[in-house]
């Protein structure tokens, strides 16, 4: 066999198979004529640089004899190319505009922010900047500029009574009140049979007093320490009359508001009959008949304290008698039986106990011939002459302290003298005159 022929045939067979599977691509240089030279697939004139003598604009270059813009630029390369502009970012900048209003009496210039939008290169982002609003007011006498970036919450204004009597005043006038002094803790200890831990609260706190004032205002007694048409001195005089009396009713010497209830009833060790058990002419009032037990947290827990409900003195003015408990209960709850059945609520609820004193000070029951304390402490309101502090004593305890003289020797004289001393002490604190302009401080010549 001729091996050379076999190899040739075999190689030719392989070559033919390769060409059969090949796609023919035209050669770009085939288009060049005899006067051109093919360089990198581009036909250029033979014998020289095609860009010789070609002048392009800014940001452009000659390529193969023609001007083209550089990368990142666009436009006419013969005259100059400019940067390609990308996506637009919207940025809002507040530019104040001014509005001026003129009236017959004043000129007002108001500056109000107005948005303007400027495009800037870069990714799409929305940014807002706000300048605070400025208002300028010009009058014939002054120019006022006020900048208010945002609304602010204003504090609640103090009530008239809070303006008249501050927390510092209250603490200064009653430094040894219930539970708040070392002296009190000497009188009330766990070793005493009537003591119970729940009594250790600031019963006569300033907050409780203000809450009671607001509660009574909502019940129709808003003139307490706030009588319309009166002077600041007049209202401070009423305040001192109220303080002078409650300090006496609850005081240990000069220490006002030291006690909460009548001591003989508070400190009983055995069974007592309930005190002050009368409802007067109020035939629809029913006094509590159920025995009252010592509290569970006292040493006498489980033992009877009173055979029936007791209406002895409780709170700042020592509210006493069944008819007063029934009347106050009716005023607060619409039902006299609430407090007739449970008079100790005045001790358990400090605001209620203080409210009872304000209610008594402001009301005029049909049986009280001497009018209410609120009216008789104002000269312009009192129909009784002479007016003043002595009349408030008569309204509170006239049956026992009538016709009493300041610095006198009788028991009634001494009680009235103590009340007047507390009244003067408060008046000196607030720097107001008392016992002038026809005001009588004691009860001499006054009868119930």
From TrEMBL:
Residues 84-160 are annotated as: Disordered. The keyword Cytoplasm does not apply. InterPro entries: Glyco_hydro_19_cat, Lysozyme-like_dom_sf. One of its GO terms (molecular function) is chitinase activity. Pfam families: Glyco_hydro_19. CDD domains: chitinase_GH19. One of its GO terms (biological process) is cell wall macromolecule catabolic process. Keywords: Disulfide bond, Plant defense, Signal. Residues 1-20 form the signal peptide. Residues 202-434 form the Glycoside hydrolase family 19 catalytic domain. Residues 84-115, 123-151 have a biased composition (Low complexity). PANTHER family: CHITINASE 12, CHITINASE-RELATED. This is Chitinase 2. It comes from Clonorchis sinensis.
